[in-house]
Design brief:
The complex is a heterodimer. Helices cover 73% and strands 0% of the residues of chain A. Chain A is mostly helical. In chain A, helix 1 packs antiparallel against helix 2. The longest helix of chain A is centred in the first third of the chain and has 25 residues. The N and C termini of chain A lie far apart (63 Å). The relative contact order of chain A is 0.06. In chain B, 77% of the residues lie in helices and 0% in strands. Chain B contains four helices and no strands. Classes of the chains: A mainly alpha, B mainly alpha. The interface between A and B is large, with 87 and 80 residues.
Chain lengths: 169, 115
């Protein structure tokens, strides 16, 4: 399972065509959803598949289509920092691995077969009693993101007028 | 049905917490590497998605192994998913408007802030 996830994540980075990497991102997100099922939070797995695999990947593919990235075209070029950033990420991975390995006994309070399966009803009760203020704030954030993306993606009127003037002359 | 699936997945071998932590650390480092090296804007956005997914796995794993009845990890992960979806929408809109101005998505060619 983790091998599939790591392979998909590496292919997101290293595949030559950017459309392939978007599709490998969908595979990696599906693997993360399976991890959520292994951690016994089914609701999160469903949300992950619906929002990430359903919406985010489709949105990325639409953006690729609108920026006219052709399927055969190799667009996935690296810059000159590959060696430095590879060293940085490998050192970071080693440090994280050593820390996790050293403290592996400290933070497990229960075993994996003692994790209870909690219902969505329970989650809704928690979400609307204790965390109701963050919930409202995030709804305002969604509204702002919606309006902002529409405004950003809208064609500017001045550009259209300029183009028309150029075409006439 | 789902409980049977859980038993197949979990009870055969005792999963430890550090397994999930190692996997999310690997995912995070791959995402960092992608953000630092790629030149296409959309590719950088995909790598940021990988980093956010690593954070989500970490949150859910810690919550499940320490205090599963508080549901804190689930709530936090829902918020992360919402923020990530907003970020992707805004980011793709910015990429589209940049593409309209400069007709490229290569960040080494977008240098209007440089002099």
């Amino acid at each position: 399972m983790s091998l599939v996830l790591v392979f998909a994540a590496l292919m997101v980075i290293f595949s030559k065509h950017i459309i392939h990497s978007a599709l490998y991102l969908a595979l990696a997100l599906l693997c993360v959803a399976i991890y959520f099922i292994m951690l016994k939070s089914e609701y999160l797995a469903v949300v992950q598949i619906m929002i990430y695999v359903g919406a985010v990947v489709v949105m990325v593919l639409f953006a690729l289509m609108l920026t006219r990235t052709r399927v055969g075209e190799v667009t996935n070029i690296t810059n000159k920092q590959t060696a430095v950033s590879g060293a940085i990420s490998i050192v970071l991975l080693l440090a994280l691995g050593i820390i996790i390995y050293m403290t592996r006994k400290g933070f497990t309070w229960i075993n994996s077969d003692e994790i209870p399966i909690l219902s969505v009803k329970n989650l809704g009760a928690v979400l609307f009693s204790k965390y109701v203020l963050p919930f409202e704030v995030i709804s305002v954030l969604i509204l702002a993101a919606l309006i902002g993306s529409v405004v950003l993606a809208m064609k500017e009127k001045d550009d259209v007028k300029k183009k028309e003037r150029i075409n006439k002359t | 049905m789902s409980i049977g699936l859980f038993k197949i997945l979990i009870s055969n071998f005792d999963l430890k917490l550090w397994y999930f932590l190692i996997v999310s650390a690997i995912l995070f480092c791959i995402g960092i590497f992608g953000v630092l090296t790629r030149r296409n804007l959309v590719q950088i956005l995909l790598s940021i998605e990988l980093i956010l997914n690593a954070a989500m796995v970490n949150f859910v794993a810690f919550s499940a192994y320490q205090k599963p009845e508080s549901q804190l990890g689930t709530v936090f992960t829902i918020f992360i998913i919402i923020v990530a979806a907003c970020e992707v929408g805004i980011g793709l809109a910015i990429i589209l408007s940049v593409y309209r101005k400069k007709s490229t998505t290569d960040i080494s060619k977008i240098n209007i802030l440089k002099w």
